[in-house]
Amino acid sequence: MAVSCRNLLKTYGTLAALNDVSLAIRPNEFFTLLGPSGCGKTTLLRAIAGFVSLDGGSITVHGQRLDGLPPHKRPVNTVFQSYAVFPHMTVADNIAFGLEMERWPKRRITTRVEEMLRLVQLDGMAARKPAQLSGGQQQRVAVARALAKGPRVLLLDEPLSALDQKLRTGMQLELKRLQRETGITFVFVTHDQREALTMSDRIAVMNAGNVLQIGSPEEIYERPAARFVADFIGEMNFIPAEAAGGCRYRLATGLELDASEPASTGTPVTLAIRPERLRLGPISADSLAATVQETVYEGTDTIYYLAMTNGDRLRAREQNRSGSLPQFGVGDKVGLTLPACSIRVLTA
C-alpha cells in the first residue's frame, strides 16, 4: 500500500480527533478524505505529513514506518489551502526552492523546474512574480513546488477552497490530470461533496473522528452505509418504515413498498431515496399521495417540495426538457413512485 494507517488515536483534551482510525491507500490512487469541519480529516492528513503527533497507532508510506520522522524526512509533500508561495520570488524560484535546500546541482534544478512548468501548464511564466498570477495559477505553482522533489505521496489540504467556483472547477480537472500523469498517490482533503465525487478514485467519509465508509464515488453515492453518509453526500429523502418481511416495508401511512435489500420482520428502518429517483404522476393504488408545496426552477432541473398525507416532507428533482415547463404546480395532488432498486435500507 502507498499509505497504511493503523489504529490512529489523537485527542485534544476530551475531544477524540482520531478515534482508532485505520485505512489503506493504494499506489497511484486519488484518495479523498471527506467530511464536515471538525471530523478529523485534516488531523489525519497532518499526522501523515508529520505536523501532528499521535497518541497511538502507526503510519507507513510504501512500507516505511514514519514514527518519529520529522516532516522534512518523510517521503511526502503537502499543498496547503493558502497557496504559501513566496511573494518576493519568481515562479521558477518558488519551484526551485525545495531543490536548492536539498543542494541539487544547478543544472539538474533548471531541468526539473522546466519539467514542472510544463506539467502544470505554466510555460513562459517562469520570470513572473506571484502578484502577476491568478489564484489558480498561484495554486499551480504551489503544486509544482510540492511535486518537484518527487514525493511518493502528495498531501493536499483543501487546496481549492480559496478559489472562485469557475477556477475551482478548472483546477479539479487539472489536479486529476496531474495525478494521472505523474502516477503519484494523491491524498486530498475536502468538505465539498461534489468535489470529492468529481476527482476521487476512492473516498473515505469521516465524522467525529471516525471513518464511516470507504468506497468509490459510485459506491458512496449509490450505497451509503450509514444515515450520516447518505445525508452528507448529495440530497436524500428519508422515510421511516418497518420491515414487513423479505424486501417489503410498511410505511406509517399503511402503504407497503418493495426495496432491493431485506431486513428482519418488525425491524424499524429508514428508507433512503435520492430526489432524482422519485417519479411524479397521477395518484394510484401503488403510489404515495402527496401535495406540491413549492417548486423551484433551477434551469437544468425543477425541484418539487412535497408533503405526504402524514405530514412527512420529501423532495423530487426532475430534469427540464428543452422548451418544457414544470408539469406540476403548488397545491397539485400527485402520486410518488419509488423504484425498488433506488431505495437504500438503513438500519443505523
From TrEMBL:
Q: What class of enzyme is it?
A: translocase
Q: Which GO terms describe its molecular function?
A: ABC-type putrescine transporter activity; ATP binding; ATP hydrolysis activity
Enzyme Commission (EC) number: 7.6.2.11
Q: What catalytic reaction does the record list?
A: ATP + H2O + polyamine-[polyamine-binding protein]Side 1 = ADP + phosphate + polyamineSide 2 + [polyamine-binding protein]Side 1
Any one GO CC term of this protein is: ATP-binding cassette (ABC) transporter complex
Q: Which PROSITE patterns match?
A: ABC_TRANSPORTER_1, ABC_TRANSPORTER_2
Question: Where would I find the ABC transporter domain in this sequence?
Answer: 3-233
Q: Which UniProt keywords apply?
A: ATP-binding, Cell membrane, Membrane, Nucleotide-binding, Translocase, Transport
Record-linked PANTHER family:
SPERMIDINE/PUTRESCINE IMPORT ATP-BINDING PROTEIN POTA, SPERMIDINE_PUTRESCINE IMPORT ATP-BINDING PROTEIN POTA
* NCBIfam families noted in UniProt: potA
* Its job: Part of the ABC transporter complex PotABCD involved in spermidine/putrescine import. Responsible for energy coupling to the transport system.
User: Assembly and interactions?
Assistant: The complex is composed of two ATP-binding proteins (PotA), two transmembrane proteins (PotB and PotC) and a solute-binding protein (PotD).
Family in the record = Belongs to the ABC transporter superfamily. Spermidine/putrescine importer (TC 3.A.1.11.1) family.
* Protein name per UniProt: Spermidine/putrescine import ATP-binding protein PotA
Q: Which organism is it from?
A: Aliidongia dinghuensis
Gene symbol of the encoding locus: potA
